[in-house]
Amino acid sequence: MNPILRVLPTLALALLLAAAVAPARAAAFVDLIDFPTDEANWDRFYDLQDRLIADFDEICPDTYCEGEYSNLIALQFRCSVRAASGTLQGCVLVVGGGNLDVDPSSGALLDDNRTWACAAPLALDTPVEVFHAALAGPRPLLAPLPGSGRSIHEALSDCLH
Questions:
Q1: Do 100 and 78 form a contact (C-beta atoms < 8 A)?
Q2: Is the pTM of this model over 0.70?
Q3: Residue 53: helix, strand or coil by DSSP?
Q4: 154 in helix, strand or coil?
Q5: pLDDT value at 22 more than 70
Q6: Pick from 69, 67, 44: which is nearest to 140 by CA?
Q7: Which candidate, 13, 17, 111, 135, has a CA 20 to 30 Å from the CA of 49?
Q8: Which alpha helices (H) appear in 30-125, and where do they start and end?
Q9: Cβ(131)–Cβ(146) under 8 Å?
Q10: CA-based torsion, 57, 81, 29, 124: positive or negative
Q11: Do 141 and 91 form a contact (C-beta atoms < 8 A)?
């Protein structure tokens, strides 16, 4: 038997063992929920998302919902964090809306649905704690964001129209 072929199984086993023992490479970016560790920010983040959605529901009828889509709904909020520095790289609020009509000649339901991914006007590299402090009040959608002085509400007005 070829000497190289005899060494290959041993070499493959050694490489597999080394890979198993080596520490996993940390992700450069994580969801805000998972900062500083998996699900460590879960409760605080979902409280913020719930307050943003409630604020959206309260503000929508007199603002965003007066346009082409009158039934807009805030669906999800997410933020990206640079794991090593604990700074935000961006946040997005996803909004959906739609219209359903009946085709008078066929009876078919005609749908016109749309989603928007509206970026929060956040300064790059805003520390996570500074971000949470800025949105800690009862009306997070109206709160000025660190570094930009603009609110998510202002960004939504631009994004949805």
A1: no
A2: yes
A3: helix
A4: helix
A5: no
A6: 44
A7: 111
A8: 42-59
A9: yes
A10: positive
A11: no
Report residue 99 as tokens.
């219209």
- Number of Cβ within a 10 Å radius of residue 135: 23
Amino acid at 6: R
| Nearest residue to 75 (alpha-carbon basis) of 52, 58, 91 | 52
Q: Which residue(s) pair with 18 in the sheet? A: none
Q: Comparing C-alpha atoms, which of 122, 132, 126, 120 is closest to residue 156?
A: 120
Q: C-alpha angle with apex 86: 41 to 127, nearest 5 degrees?
A: 95
Amino acid, res. 138: P
Q: What is the DSSP letter of 8?
A: H
Contact 153, 59 (CB under 8 A): yes
**DSSP states of 27-50:** PSEEEGGGSSSTTTTHHHHHHHHH
The residue extents of the domains of the chain are 27-160
